[in-house]
Automatic annotation (TrEMBL):
Binds 2 magnesium ions per tetramer. Its cofactor is Mg(2+). It catalyses: tRNA(Phe) + L-phenylalanine + ATP = L-phenylalanyl-tRNA(Phe) + AMP + diphosphate + H(+). It is found in: Cytoplasm. PANTHER family: PHENYLALANINE--TRNA LIGASE BETA SUBUNIT (PTHR10947:SF0), PHENYLALANYL-TRNA SYNTHETASE BETA CHAIN AND LEUCINE-RICH REPEAT-CONTAINING PROTEIN 47 (PTHR10947). This is Phenylalanine--tRNA ligase beta subunit. The gene is pheT. Residues 404-479 form the B5 domain. Its EC number is 6.1.1.20. Gene3D superfamilies: 3.30.56.10, Bira Bifunctional Protein, Domain 2, Ferrodoxin-fold anticodon-binding domain, Nucleic acid-binding proteins, Phenylalanyl-trna Synthetase, Chain B, domain 3. Belongs to the phenylalanyl-tRNA synthetase beta subunit family. Type 1 subfamily. GO terms for cellular component: phenylalanine-tRNA ligase complex. Transmembrane segments: none annotated. It comes from Acetomicrobium mobile (strain ATCC BAA-54 / DSM 13181 / JCM 12221 / NGA).
């Protein structure tokens, strides 16, 4: 928000400098991002009258003007076509300096000398003031000879203040003046007087009234004026608007903008004669309705947008922007002025969805004081009367309850002491009083404050304490040591498990992903989940960030896959090993069940199980080994058996079991899903429940072997659908108790292996607890195994 120092001092007398004001305002929470000295170089410009003007004798596009003021006369040449005899203008004589720092002198144009120049609004330092190209024309009563910059109020300091979303009360000059008065106790807030208005309209028109059909508008007011003459506003008001970043348009429109800047209450003017019917209705839009707004853009509305209508036709987006079909123009003679209270969520949702960033929507989205609705309407009518815009009626229509609900918040010395180290309630009351907080009841240890209607962000005692702290100054609060030094906290089981999961997977080359809990509803279709799968039935959000984040995730895998796809679209072409720990949300009837899961994914990687020879691409067994290593880090064992998932490859999908119950899956994403997601290479994934990791099991220790082991290898040809676990069980069944370990070291399919089969190579470890085994003993046992193995459907290789 742009804050004019001159305008601010019209509302409050500030015994301070601009720099001190900016510093205190920033320290109190409203950061001053920039300080602009407007027209600081402008010097020596006076107000003069054009007493004569004629066309240049040889340059027909130029005019020669004679100017007079209290100290003399001068001649100057101009190319502006809007100047005529009798006009009052800003004149810069030789030696004067214009806004861009140029010092003027005497110039000659085809034999005629020009002593200085008449100035445009741009040359005065206010480009927003220019309504047409040419010289800035001042009102007839402007005092000749006066300093033009001082009389217009152009020489000013303008603060660009960043207003936080909770402080909508600061989006007005009155709100900023109130804040300044609280920051500088010696300042004095001046009263703003408004004429009385009554709610029994005596308008000379047949107007049927206002109907409120939506709770999003609890209060709606209308004023009326006729016999209007739509002309530029008084120059000083136009300067204030321009310094505040608002381009002046016409007296009627400028009234609404000026009052909005003053009180923070947006207003809107409708051309009465353009209304489809002599009535106003506030209602929700129907899906597919359309409206052309004042910026000339057509918008298609969704169901639930708040509309201002007349005769059933939309004439404005409530609190956002008016409709082009009721716009004020040069032909307007009768108007209705709207002052209303709209609920912030309704306005912010519509403005954000339609991409309209108006000053009104900006304020309504942050909350507008309901009590300002009749005040702003009365002030605007009075201002139009002062500006002689037309015949103004000080009777209004006010539909709804204009009285804000009373809010009481206590403040105790105990909590004040706890939070900021001071317990003086009397001093706290003095600090809060300039902001409008009134003490309702009080005792030595407790005061109940009545919260002003414009402070919608103050609801609890801590809010009051924050106000006291920021106004006193955080650097002024007493420094003190804590009364008790607490022992360091112990880490709970869940954070401890999360940390260990991160350490284990990162040690295996994984990086952690942090995705939103919100995903696109199309995930069920992308992963081919059937409707019978409860993961395909997510909860929808009432107020989503976007359509792509409109439902709660039911498992981690979709978010991980979308993250990988997004990185691939951005040009990533390297191996990915990623994991995520996060909450998922599953429907159980009408109830929402929240669980924590752990998921991992491998893409484009090389398997490091064969460190020698050619590198082998990652496969199903890579990610299975990583998950089993994670389980072993917790002293757990996950049983992996053939399984199925809608998105998983039929031959490379497994269920993960823990203590006999399914806790997750391992899968290679099947080709049809890969094509749908445009994945250029195979993707391997796992996802398991988090809860098994909360109870890690202590490692079991056995007696250290005293005698060396003897090793023998065996290679077997097995059906392709037979698992390694099944083959290992057969070997275990046929071998002696002296076999202490069976370890797979190679899987091969290809040349010399029958179709539909695979070769599995194992290393067997033989060991005796009491002595060293001889080669003869081991060979005998091993040969017995080889002779019996084919009886189990396996063949030696």
């Amino acid at each position: 928000m742009l804050v004019s120092w001159n305008w601010l001092n019209e509302l409050v007398s500030l015994p301070t400098s601009t720099l001190e004001f900016a510093d205190k305002l920033t320290m109190a929470g409203a950061e001053v991002e920039e300080i602009n000295q407007v027209a600081c170089k402008l010097n020596g410009v006076v107000i003069a009258k054009v007493t004569d003007i004629s066309v240049h004798p040889t340059k027909k596009n130029l005019k020669v003007a004679t100017l007079s003021w209290d100290e003399g006369t001068a001649t100057c040449v101009t190319g502006a076509q809007n100047v005529k005899e009798g006009d009052i203008v800003p004149y810069a004589p030789p030696g004067a300096v214009i806004a861009d720092g140029t010092t003027l002198g005497i110039e000659e144009f085809e034999g005629i000398k020009s002593y200085g120049m008449m100035l445009s609004a741009d040359e005065m330092g206010l480009p927003l003031l220019s309504q047409e190209e040419g010289i800035l024309i001042l009102p007839p009563d402007a005092p000749l000879g006066e300093d033009a910059a001082l009389w217009l109020g152009i020489k000013d300091t303008v603060f660009d203040v960043s207003i936080t979303p909770n402080r909508g009360d600061l989006l007005s000059m009155v709100g900023m003046a109130r804040e300044a008065c609280a920051l500088f106790p010696d300042s004095l807030l001046k009263d703003i007087k408004c004429p009385p208005i009554h709610t029994h309209p005596d308008w000379p028109v047949n107007f049927r009234g206002v109907t409120l059909k939506d709770p999003g508008c609890p209060l709606y007011g209308l004023g009326f004026a006729e016999e209007l003459n739509v002309i530029p506003s008084p120059i000083q008001y136009r300067v204030k608007l321009a310094l505040s970043g608002v381009r002046p348009i016409s007296n009627v429109v400028d009234v609404t903008n000026y009052v909005m800047l003053l009180f923070g209450q947006p207003l809107h003017a409708f051309d009465f004669d353009k209304l489809p019917a002599p009535e106003i209705t506030v209602r929700s839009s129907r899906a597919g309705e359309r409206i052309v707004t004042l910026d000339g853009k057509e918008h298609e509305l969704s169901e639930g947008d708040l509309l201002i209508t007349s005769g059933g036709m939309p004439i404005g987006l409530a609190g956002v922007m008016g409709g082009a079909n009721s716009e004020i123009d040069a032909t307007t003679r009768r108007i209705l002025i709207e002052s209303a209270h709209f609920l912030p969520p309704r306005i912010s949702t519509t403005a954000r969805r339609l991409g309209i960033n108006s000053e009104a929507a900006y304020r309504y989205a942050r909350g507008v004081d309901k009590a300002k609705v009749p005040l702003a309407l009365a002030y605007s009518l009075d201002l139009m009367n002062q500006w002689k815009c037309g015949n103004v009626f000080f009777s209004v229509i006010m539909e709804g309850d204009p009285n804000p609900k009373e809010r009481l918040v206590p403040l105790t010395s105990k909590k004040l002491k706890t939070y900021i180290g001071v317990d003086d309630l009397t001093e706290a009351s003095k600090v809060l009083s300039p902001l409008g907080f009134e003490a309702s009841t009080s005792s030595p240890e407790r005061i109940i404050f009545k919260v002003p209607s414009f402070r919608m962000d103050v609801e609890i005692e801590e809010d009051l304490i924050e106000e006291v702290a920021r106004l006193k100054g955080y650097d002024e609060l007493p420094a003190r040591l804590p009364g008790k030094i607490h022992d360091s906290a112990t880490i709970g089981a869940e954070p401890r498990a999360e940390r260990k999961i991160r350490e284990t997977l990162m040690a295996r080359g994984y990086i952690e992903l942090l995705n939103y809990s919100f995903i696109s509803p199309k995930f069920a279709k992308d992963l081919q989940l059937p409707l019978s799968d409860n993961r395909a039935m997510p909860f929808s959000l009432a107020n989503p960030i976007s359509v792509e984040q409109s439902v709660l995730r039911t498992f981690l895998l979709p978010g991980m896959i979308y993250a990988i796809c997004d990185n691939l679209r951005r040009g990533w072409r390297f191996a990915i090993r990623a994991f995520e720990i996060g909450n998922v949300f599953i429907k159980e009837g009408e109830r929402l069940k929240e669980e924590k899961h752990v998921a991992g994914a491998i893409f484009l990687g090389k398997d490091d199980r064969s460190p020698y020879g050619d590198a082998v691409k990652d496969d199903f067994f890579t990610i299975k080994g990583d998950l089993q290593s994670l389980a072993r880090a917790f002293g757990l064992y996950f049983d992996v058996i053939p399984g199925s998932e809608p998105f998983g490859h039929s031959g490379q999908t497994a269920d993960v079991l823990f203590d006999g119950r399914k806790i997750g899956f391992i899968a290679k994403i099947k080709p049809s899903v890969e094509r749908q997601l445009e994945l250029p290479s195979p993707l391997y994934v796992f996802e398991v429940a988090f809860d098994p990791f909360l109870a890690p099991r202590a490692p079991r220790f056995g007696e250290t072997y005293r005698y060396p082991a003897v090793y023998r290898d065996i290679s077997l040809v097995a059906p392709e659908n037979m698992t390694v676990k099944e083959v290992s069980s057969i070997i275990r069944e046929l071998t002696s108790e002296l076999v202490t370990s069976i370890r797979l070291f190679d899987v091969y399919k290809g040349k010399n292996i029958p179709e539909g089969h695979k070769s599995l190579s194992f290393t067997l470890e033989y060991r005796h607890p009491d002595r060293t085994l001889s080669d003869e003993e081991v060979d005998r046992i091993h040969n017995e195994l080889r002779s019996q193995i084919e009886s189990k459907g396996l063949k030696l290789r």
